[in-house]
Amino acid sequence: MITTLLYSLTGMILFGMGLFTLIIHSHPLRKILAVNVMATGVFLILVATAYIPLGQGEIDPVPHAMVLTGIVVSVSVTALALILACRVQETSNLALLKKTKPSQATKEIKA
Amino acid sequence: MIFHAGTPSWVIAPIVLPLIAGLLCFLCNRKTFVIALAAALANFFVACLLIYQLLVFGTMRCYIGGWAPPLGITLRTDGPALLMLLMTAVTGLGVTLYARGYFSHRISDPVRVGRHQRQQRYFWPLWMLMLAGLNGLFLSGDIFNLYVTLELIGISAASLAALSGKPASQRASFRYLLISLLGSLTYLLGVVFLYRSCGVLDLELLRNLAANGLGTRAALALLTVGLLLKTALVPLHFWLPPAHANALAPVSVILSALVVKGSFYLLFRFWFELFAPMVSKSALNFMGILGAIAILWGAIQAMRQHRLKLMVAYSTVSQLGYLFVAFPLSRVAEGAQVWSIVIFMALTHACAKSAMFMAAGSVYLHLGHDRIKDLAGVRASLPITVFAYGIAGVSLMGLPPSGAFIAKWMLLSSSLASSQWWWALVIMAGSLLAMVYVFRVMSQFFVIPEENALKNSTPLSPLLEWPALILALISLSLGLLAPWLLRILSQGGTAFAQIFPGGLP
Prior knowledge:
The complex is a heterodimer of chains A (111) and B (505).
Chain A: H1 2-24, H2 28-49, H3 61-92, H4 102-110
Helix pairs in contact in A: 1-2, 2-3
Chain B: H1 13-27, H2 32-57, E1 60-63, E2 74-77, H3 79-108, H4 113-139, H5 143-162, H6 167-198, H7 203-209, H8 214-231, H9 240-245, H10 249-274, H11 281-304, H12 308-325, H13 338-367, H14 378-381, H15 383-397, H16 403-417, H17 421-445, H18 462-477, H19 482-489
Antiparallel strand pairs in B: 1-2
Helix pairs in contact in B: 1-2, 1-4, 2-3, 2-4, 3-4, 3-10, 3-13, 3-18, 3-19, 4-5, 4-10, 5-6, 5-10, 6-8, 8-10, 10-13, 11-12, 11-17, 12-13, 12-17, 13-15, 13-16, 13-18, 15-17, 15-18, 16-17
C-alpha cells in the first residue's frame, strides 16, 4: 500500500511541477516539455493504480492498456506541438510566444 | 431496450465512415471533395436513421467486438446524444459545401495558388478526422474512450487552426494545442481518480457506483476544470478569440459551432447524469455566475471589436455563457427540463454561428478585409450573405421563432418561478447586448458606399452564399420544430419532465 501511495504522490508532484512550468515559462520548448512531464505524472499514477484492486502481487491490466494508449497519444501530440513551435519561430522570428526583450529571450534559451 | 442481434448496428457508422473518408482523402490527390461530401451525406443519413431507430426501439447500447463492460467499450444512443449528432451532421454538410466554394474561390485567385492548393489538400482529411472524433464523443459510453476522442478533436482542431499559415494564426494554434493538451491531461487525471475509487470506466456502471467520497469529488473537480478549459468559459476563454478569428473561414465555422459544443456536452453529461446526486447547490450557482459573467463580458468585448471575425468569435464566448446559466436553474420546478434548454441553445447556436462565420468569411473574400467600419455597400453586392447574417443575428438574439427563443423563454420562466430574478436580468441584458453588436455590423452593411469603394471586390460563387442562408434559416425555424425535437429528447435515459411549466410561450 505504501508503495502505491509513494508512486501516486510522485505522480501528483510531477503533474504539479509540469503545470507550474507550463504557466510560468514562456519558451515554447519548455512548455512542450512541461506538458510531457505532466503526462508522465498522470501515467505514473495510473501504473500505481494497477497495483491496488487484487493486491498481493497481482495486477489489474486495464490501467496498463490506458497508459499505452496515453503514451501513443502523448508522442503524437508532442510531434505536432514541436512542428507548430518550429513554424511559429520561422514565420514570426520570435523565440518566444509572448513578446519580451531580445536579451531576455537569449538568456531563456541559454538557461 | 438492449441492442439485439437482429437490428443492424448503425451506431458504429458515424465513427467509421468519416475515419475511412479521412484516410481516403489523405491518400488520394484528386476527388477529395467528392469523398468528403459522400461521407458527410452518409453521416447525415445515418444520423437520421439512428433517430428513427431511437423513436422505434428506444435507447440502444452496442458492445464493440461483443465485449461487455467492464472490459469492453460501449457505444450508446439516446435523445441528447443523437440530437448533437444530427447537429454535427447538418452543420458538417453545410461546412463541406462551403469549404468547397471557399477553396475553389481561393485557388482561382492567381496569387499563391500553391499555398491555397496545399491548404485544401490538408483541410479535407483533417476535417473528416474531426468529424469522426466528434461523433465518437457523442456516442461513446466509456470515460477513457472519451479521453481519446477529446484528444482526437484537440489534435485535428489545432492543425486545422494552423492551416491558414499566417504568423498570428500559428501562434494562436500553438497556444490552442497547449491549452487543449492541458485540458485533456486534467481530464485524464480525473479519469484516473474515478477509476481508482470505482474500478470501472463505463458510464452506466459508474452512475450506480459513484458514491459521494473524496476520490469522486476530486475526480469531478478535475474533469470539470479540464472540460471548462476546452469549452472556453470565462475566465478560461482567453485562447478562443485569436484561435477562432485567425483561422480560415470553414475552419472557424467548425471550431466555433462544433468543437466547443463537444466538450460542453460531456461536461453536462457528467454534472447531470453521472454526478447528479453529489453536485451541491453552491457548485451549480458558481457555474451559473461564471456563465453570467461570460454572457456580459463576451458581449461587451464583441461590441468593442473592429474586425468582423473577432466580433463573431467573442459572440461565441457570450453565447456559451447561456449554456452555463442553465445550471443553477436545473433544480427548480419538479422536472429536469434543463436538457431541453441546453440542447435548444446548443443547436441554435451551432446553426446560427456557422451561418455567421460563413457570412463573415464570404465578406472577407469579397472585400479582402473584414474591418467593420469599411463594410459599406456589401448589401448591394452580396444580398444573400447579408440576409443570412441578419437571420443568424436574429437567432442569436433569441427572437421568436428561433430555437434560442424557446431556450431563453424556459430559462426566464424557470428563473422567475423560483424567484431567482437576477438570472432573468442577465439573460435579458445579454439579448440586448447581442442586438447591439449584431446591428452595429448590420447598419454598416446598409451604408451606401462612395463611387469607387467596391472596385476591388470579387463576385462569389453560390456555394459560398447558400449554405450560410440555409443554416441560418434552420436555426430560425428550430422553434417551430420544437415538438419533434422534444419528442426525440424525451427518449433519454434520464427523466425529462414536463416541457413548458408556465404554458406554451
